[in-house]
Amino acid sequence: MTKPRIPFLTLTPGEDAAAVRAAIDRVVSRGWFVLGPEVDAFEARFAALMGAGHAAGVGTGTDAIALILRALGIGAGDEVITTPLSAAYSALAIIMTGARPVFADIDRERLTLDPDAVARAIGPRTRAILPVHLYGQAADMTTLERIASRHNLALVEDCCQAHLATAGGRMVGTIGAAGAFSFYPTKNLGALGDGGAVVTNDRALADRVKRLRNGGQTDRYHHVEPGINSRLDEIQAAILSARLPFLRKWTTRRRSLAARYRATLAGSPVDLPPELDAGHVYHLFVILARDGAARGDLQARLAADGIETLIHYPVPMPHQPAFAAGDPAECPIASSVCERILSLPLHPAMSDADVDAVSAAVKKVKGHAACGR
Question: What gap in Å lies between CA 120 and CA 104, rounded to an integer?
């Protein structure tokens, strides 16, 4: 397979390489690999950067969501409303608790949970709302907060694509009861393996998450409740601490590249989801083709030009067999969007010239008139 001229992303350490190498060597030399000083240090640094009182490092972003829900007492017989447009792990985390995911359709422009659809989906078993800050742009948290408060529901934020994002000037992850973050290598802040974290301003919630992540132990071999084994390891924590000082610079670069895409794609035969919050951190830069056939043609032509693209996400959650047992409702807006979305390359190592080349290649593809919303 020919290596793309402009790859979708690169995971090789760059300007952070020396710091990452030193972090790994430090942990190996110390010989302490699970729940040690590196995790403690990263939790303190990450909480401070996110503007939260507490952070708990866990094994994955999926576990972070599930552990928050469990710490809130959500489980079998309960329902959690979430989006049909996300990685399946958002809803799988709900199932991990024994609860049922209920999918409410998305806002046609923001592409996150539509608050009106959420309000219609609330039932007697609803216990929480799980918005996903998709592609790096926050959901409509002000309206979702009002709905959650009116119905006495927990608001749990999936921030796995939204490190340093803000919603109306407020840091995501600190608006609801807690926020879940992923450090999967492709994320804006990525580890060299799996990792995740919970952030919250609720000390009791943080303490319970830390207990649940470690088998429900209060101290060694004393298990007061059935927890799981989901611990951020020392090497990944050290790597994340080494990369944390670069995150603001990388975020600024992502925003700059996105602004260049928006300028250079003006007049192109595709739609661009609007930036509805200045706190968008552009984990992904997504465009919308006219329809599925147009997207397939566009993706193929970009590949022929050496430009790698991906689709986030091709199948809406209600159409995934994994969720069929919950008899999910149709979400027509999400279904339509899933047929049209295409993610263009965007990562801090890209050059302005790379963005210009991608935009020029998109504009070369004729016959895909933009579809009005």
Answer: 8
